[in-house]
Specification:
With 107 residues, the chain is mostly helical. It is built from 4 helices and 2 strands. It has one domain. Strands 1-2 form a two-stranded antiparallel sheet.
Amino acid sequence: MELMEKLTIEQITNLQKQYGMTQMQDYINNGMVWNLEGCVGRSAMDMLKSGACMLPVEQHEDYYGHIIPSRNQLEEGTTGTLLNSQNFWAMVENGEIEIDVEAENEL
């Protein structure tokens, strides 16, 4: 059995752009999402859990001062990590997951 090559961050970023998820990833990357209204943070958490988005390489604080860890501070393959996103986007590319292209318009 041949190991599948993992997607790069650049490839994931291109897929996020194709499917309209760049704004949410940008909000997560700069920490802004944790200071916006609750429904935006909940949407971000859903996207992190699925792997559609990933945490940035630096940690942030939310509105209440809670630490949001970086993706490198977490166990590999868990919510918010690069491996979680690689797995998600590989399934999108393989047709195992279908995405609504209008996702970005809902923010």
